[in-house]
Amino acid sequence: MSVRNWSNGRIIHSASFRRLQTKTQVMGTGEGDFHRTRLTHSLEVGQIGRGIVWNLARRKNFPYAEYLPPPELIEAICYAHDLGHPPYGHGGERALFRNMRHHGGFEGNAQTIRILTKLEKYYRGAGTQPSRRLLLGVLKYPVEYGRYTIKDTDNKPPKCFYDDDLPLIRQALRCFDAADAEKFTTLGVDAKPIHKSFDCSIMELADDIAYGVHDLEDGVGRSILKRSDIGHDLLDGFTEAGIHQIRNVPINEILDKLFSDDACERKHAISLMVGFFVVAVQVERLNEFRSGFLDLQAKVSPEISRLLKHLSKEITFKSLVSRREVQTLEFKGEKVIDNLFSAFDERPVQLIGPQLFEQAASGLSQLISKANGK
Question: What is the pTM of this model?
Answer without folding.
Answer: 0.91
